[in-house]
Specification:
By secondary structure, the protein is mainly alpha-helical. The chain has 19 helices and no strands.
Amino acid sequence: MSLIERARTQPPPDPVPGAPAEAAGLEPHEQLSVRQRNLVLAAMCLALVLVVASVSMLAVGLPSVSEALGLTQTTQTWVVDAYALTLASLLLVAGALGDRFGRRGALLVGIAILAIGSVLSTLADTGAQLIAFRALTGIGGALIMPGTLSTITSVFPPEERPRAVGIWAGFAGAGGTLGMLGAGWLLGTWSWHSLFYVTAAVAAVTFAAVLAFVPTTKATEHVGLDPLGTVLSALGIGGVVLGIIEGPIRGWSHPITVTGLVAGVLLLAAFVAWELRTDHPLLDPRLFRHRGFATGSAALMVLFIALFGIFLVILQYLQVMLGYSALKSAVALLPMTFVMIPVSAIAAPLSVKMGQKLVGGGGLVISAIGLLAFSTVNPDSGYLPLLVAQLVLAAGVGLSMTPATNAIVSSLPTSKQGVASAVNDTTREIGTALGIAIMGSMFNSGYRRAIDGDLQGLPTGVAGQAREAPGLALDAAKGLGPRGDALASAARDAFTSGMRLSMFVGATLLVLAAAFVVLRGPSQGEAVAEDVLDDELVDDGLVLAVEA
């Protein structure tokens, strides 16, 4: 008998005493009406935006925070990245906790912690205090994020699940833009404290929505928490992200950067070795031999490298080159949201009908075309070419993100949806850090190489300032008279060079990811087999249903 035939004839597992209603034979979607499921989806998208927007809101408000607290450049970076580092390090164990003890409870605890961290952030008097409070907020985010997707996959029936995941994926991509828009409006009206007060208020609304609409779901089989694997994964991911964060700031050969990267890689290698030996792994590494799991993870990571790398460069283009305010910059990027969310929802039935290879791979190629369109923009182009480029990119991201997310979550059974969601989220967070590091470094390299020849004869201090960043070059040019006009023109040209290099690198990565998805992604038959065989992946070891 084939694996598929065995999966179809396998009787349902015996109920587990004390487990939720679905363990007794009643699936969550059978307990909820269509309206109730849609309310669950709305609550989960709100919780997701709360986590994602917490990064972009502070990124927009960082100049105001820095001026008020007197932060150095390194401290500013860590104020933003303390949240991202904590979040990325704890996602896997947070997903396992939700699987074992209940996802609704993990969501509520996480939302409460995030709200407390946000309120405490308003009381910070120093950079060190704000970094600590942002790290606390990241713990809350780690508890929230896996629960949003795993709750959706648990309460929606198979025929509705791809659409629901597509809408979730759209909000995952658009949450950053929505956060920037909100931050721009708040900073134009109130002080930087309002960013954290509003975050806490949205957290309170989200808490009430989860209480009102979201049922309790958890694994029907025992989920081991794997204490050693938890420590190794958290420290390993934390070390790698630390190195990625510090590389562009201190240099890639700096001891802190090298130590973080080397220690992170060694700890992750130890994590893989341990997970292959333990009976109840936190994440079985052999799952990456699973076609959908591997290609979905790779596609998401590269997508977020491109997406957040673009935000880093394009925000500078809008504010430094075009002179837009923070609010106007956020509004200028809003069309991406209007396209990304509906396209993500449309991609769900398309990927079910046509497969991850065609829809997901095609979306990655379209995303690459969007980056190439960005590379044609220069300081004299105005807004229209930028609008066209971001619409193309948003369509590509929407088409590729939903199949990738569905490929990951459909590769694991219901009992492991928290961990599947955590893997999905971890690839996004690491991709975000990589995007800032890789595309930021490429932009800096292209800018400095282009402007170096125009700095000859300038005072040492002015030349050093101009080489550091385009905004500093334009500020320095204001006091130099006729020589300043030449420096400003050189800075704008160098900005264009840096932006083109970063966009070419991002487009290349997207094309390579598309090739990987097309060559390695599951066929339609294999994708269906993954869903049918979820029940084969039970508590005494994950069975790979589809061979590599």
